[in-house]
Structure formats: C-alpha cells, structure tokens
Specification:
By secondary structure, the chain is an alpha+beta fold. The chain has 1 helix and 2 strands, in the order ββα.
Length: 44
C-alpha cells in the first residue's frame, strides 16, 4: 500500500482486511459477530 494513510491492515491466510483506523470499533464488532456464526469462525 503506497500513498495511503491511517489504515489498519490485517492479513491472515484466509483473508485480508483493510479499513480506516477510525473504524477500529466497527472491526471489533465485526469480529464479535463472526464469532457467533459457525460458518464464519474460520476467518478468526
């Protein structure tokens, strides 16, 4: 990523998440939601 600022980048074997740092609380909420769904737990 060149020329971008204030981003959070999380890379895992199954997926890559890129979001603005101002949305960090939304990422936490998304992780909680994924944890409640069996089919989505593989992304955690």
């Amino acid at each position: 990523l060149v020329g971008v600022k204030d981003l959070i980048v999380v890379h895992a074997p199954q997926a890559t998440l890129v979001c603005h740092k101002d949305r960090a609380q939304d990422v936490r909420a998304m992780v909680r939601l994924l944890a409640t769904r069996k089919a989505c737990r593989r992304f955690l």
